[in-house]
């Protein structure tokens, strides 16, 4: 793979994807977070081969209805729209897997732009301040390696087996990431993606009501979330921001929340103070909580590593429609 893979065959690729993502985030601010998660769920099942985008067929049951994805994973239509734009410029050239990888990179740097634009429109005299806010809200960027091929199949079972559940404990998380060649540092940095986006009550109810001891939640936080977003019964689909401190910014507030035990998912809290894993992730969480730049650098590096779990060469194909094999 190489960042220059499409330089000759599709020189406008990166600007087409960027424009598509900017439009999608403009329409719905949450979409940046949703596309970032889509990339993670693609890469963790058969590698980053766009298998997550395949609709079910007579030959296989795909990943879209696997437990972690059903009624949860979002953004398929955004990738469809970008793919259509890319096909219009460069026919049968760019894989869906590469489009998702580029879209996820752009998603992170675009976080908060809609928020900033509305601030700008509401108060043009403080435009300079707003531009500064915009710079701070977006996350890091990185050079995307390209040349991924699209998979020929998808597997619901593989998605259920590979994607970590929200009640996972640290040894399980470490093992699942290690299976993909990703160490504790990559696990901790990548989990920082939960600085943006939303979760449904059903995914965090057990944590905020029942977890005790090393997994306990700050009492005031639990009271607030229970009342606002997650009753003990019902309201399964109610949404809460994964990071309450500054949900519209891609920052290191998530790690400060871990230290304060103010996060929604048990799998997140496991990274700090769980008492297992020799404290390897505790030290990283403290380091990221104290140093936003260190988090940004490590997050970008870990996204590149995760993105390298790819099909290349003559394997797979370049799909014409991301939802089905050619
Ligand atoms: C470490 C194990 C992880 C677990 C157990 C986990 C679990 C979850 C769960 C349960 C949700 C909420 C889903 C819902 O309510 O429908 C979520 C949302 C999200 N996850 Fe993760 N996740 C993990 C790692 C990651 C990684 C590595 C990334 C990206 C690099 C990521 C990005 C996101 C984003 C951005 C959202 C919000 C999506 C939206 O608002 O549409 N997660 N995750």
From TrEMBL:
The active site is at residue 41. One of its GO terms (cellular component) is extracellular region. GO terms for molecular function: heme binding; lactoperoxidase activity; metal ion binding. It is found in: Secreted. Residues 1-326 form the Plant heme peroxidase family profile domain. The keyword Nucleotide-binding does not apply. It comes from the Eukaryota. Binds 2 calcium ions per subunit. Its cofactor is Ca(2+); heme b. It catalyses: 2 a phenolic donor + H2O2 = 2 a phenolic radical donor + 2 H2O. The record marks 37 as: Transition state stabilizer. One of its GO terms (biological process) is response to oxidative stress. Coiled coil: none annotated. Substrate binds at residue 164. Disulfide bonds join 10-90, 43-48, 96-322, 201-230. Its main location: secreted. Ca(2+) 2 binds at residues 195, 251. Its EC number is 1.11.1.7. Belongs to the peroxidase family. Classical plant (class III) peroxidase subfamily. Removal of H(2)O(2), oxidation of toxic reductants, biosynthesis and degradation of lignin, suberization, auxin catabolism, response to environmental stresses such as wounding, pathogen attack and oxidative stress. This is Peroxidase.
């Amino acid at each position: 793979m190489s960042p220059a893979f499409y330089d000759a065959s599709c020189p406008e690729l990166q600007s087409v994807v960027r424009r598509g993502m900017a439009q999608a985030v403009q329409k719905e601010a949450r979409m940046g977070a949703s596309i970032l998660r889509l990339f993670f769920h693609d890469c963790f099942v058969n590698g980053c081969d766009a298998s997550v985008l395949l609709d079910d067929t007579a030959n296989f049951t795909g990943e879209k209805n696997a437990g972690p994805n059903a009624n949860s994973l979002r953004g398929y239509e955004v990738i469809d729209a970008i793919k259509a734009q890319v096909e219009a410029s460069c026919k049968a050239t760019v894989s869906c897997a590469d489009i998702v990888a580029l879209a996820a990179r752009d998603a992170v740097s675009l976080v908060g732009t809609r928020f900033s634009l509305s601030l700008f429109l509401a108060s043009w005299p403080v435009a300079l301040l707003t531009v500064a806010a915009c710079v701070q809200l977006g996350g890091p960027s990185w050079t995307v390696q390209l040349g991924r091929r699209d998979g020929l199949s998808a597997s619901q079972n593989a998605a259920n087996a590979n994607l970590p559940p929200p009640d996972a404990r640290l040894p399980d998380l470490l093992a699942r990431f290690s299976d993909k060649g990703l160490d504790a540092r990559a696990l901790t940095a990548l989990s920082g993606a939960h600085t943006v986006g939303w979760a449904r009550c059903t995914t965090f109810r057990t944590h905020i009501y029942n977890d005790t001891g090393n997994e306990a939640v700050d009492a005031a936080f639990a009271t607030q979330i229970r009342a606002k977003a997650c009753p003990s019964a019902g309201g399964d689909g109610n949404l809460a921001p994964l990071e309450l401190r500054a949900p519209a910014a891609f920052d290191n507030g998530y790690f400060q929340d871990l230290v304060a035990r103010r996060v929604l998912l048990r799998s997140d809290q496991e990274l700090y103070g769980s008492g297992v894993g020799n404290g390897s992730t505790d030290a990283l969480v403290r380091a990221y909580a104290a140093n936003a730049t260190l988090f940004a650098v490590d997050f970008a590096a870990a996204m590149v590593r995760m993105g390298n779990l790819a099909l290349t060469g003559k394997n797979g194909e370049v799909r014409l429609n991301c939802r089905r094999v050619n």
